[in-house]
Specification:
The complex is a heterodimer of chains A (about 160) and B (about 80). With about 160 residues, chain A is an alpha/beta fold. Chain A has helices spanning about 15-20, 25-35, 40-55, 60-70, 80-95, 100-115, 140-155, and strands spanning about 10, 35-40, 75, 120, 135-140. Chain B starts with 7 loop residues before the first helix and ends with a helix. Classes of the chains: A alpha/beta (about 160), B mainly alpha (about 80). The interface of A and B includes residues 19, 51 and 72 of A.
């Protein structure tokens, strides 16, 4: 699925989160984060923090990242509604003998409940969820499109 | 439309800023100020944490972590079905 800048609110997964925070152009990251409302599930956050801790072995680092992210992102808890929706999806997957990743299932459930698309590295990751109404966009494409819009705006002002 | 009360001094500064920005309305000026505040405070927050991430490394790590967790589930399933 191609990127779409008509949406202003997204649920980002751990892959998209890693992509955003790996960008060298820090001002672009700040602009991107201030223009969009980004949600992240506690499970995706756990995946990301596991990576950071595995690399740094520094508890204070993950504590400060968590504090920062709670200001920058809307952290979505796995509440009872998410659990119910996730159970329906998982049960359907099992009926069709399909394997699944629990973080993806939880993200899909939050995305459906909140009615917001998912931002990920590869939208094909959520292909099996499209039939439930999941919309997934590539973070790379969205950032590139955003960058282009900023450049066009700059050109117009000059 | 809503009205806000500001001091004479702020009004003067706002008019000067509108001229400098070549903005067509005060609504535009205030919106730019709001955006700038968000940008600056977010930049300040982000600069507090040294977050150097290699995207390819993180992607590989998360994928491997997911595979390990799924393999663990499979081996547990195999153990359960063993006589």
């Amino acid at each position: 699925m191609s990127s779409d800048t008509t949406h202003r609110e997204f649920l980002i997964d751990s892959y998209a989160l890693a992509y955003i925070h790996s960008l060298e152009e820090k001002d672009l990251v700040v602009l991107f984060l201030s223009k969009f409302v980004l949600h992240i599930s506690t499970l995706s956050l756990q995946e990301f923090l596991t990576y950071v801790h595995f690399k740094s072995h520094d508890y204070t680092k993950i504590a400060s990242i968590t504090q920062l992210f709670s200001k920058v992102y809307i952290i979505e808890d796995v509440d009872i509604n998410v659990i119910i929706k996730a159970s329906l999806i998982t049960s359907d997957f099992l009926k069709h003998e399909m394997s699944y990743n629990i973080t993806d299932v939880i993200n899909a459930a939050i995305s459906l409940i909140k009615n917001i698309p998912i931002l990920t590295d590869d939208p094909e990751r959520y292909k099996a969820y499209f039939k439930y109404g999941i919309i997934a966009y590539s973070i790379e494409e969205l950032i590139n499109r955003f960058k282009k819009l900023l450049e066009e705006g700059k050109d117009r002002r000059q | 439309m809503k009205t806000v009360a500001i001091s004479e001094d702020t009004w003067r500064k706002l008019k000067e800023l509108k001229e400098k920005m070549k903005a067509s309305s005060f609504d535009d000026v205030i919106n730019v100020l709001i955006e700038t505040w968000h940008f600056t405070s977010l930049k300040e927050e982000l600069s507090k944490v040294n977050l150097k991430i290699s995207y390819y490394e993180a992607r590989e790590f998360i994928t491997t972590m997911r595979e390990l967790s799924s393999r663990e589930k499979q081996s547990r399933k195999r153990m359960e079905t063993m006589p």
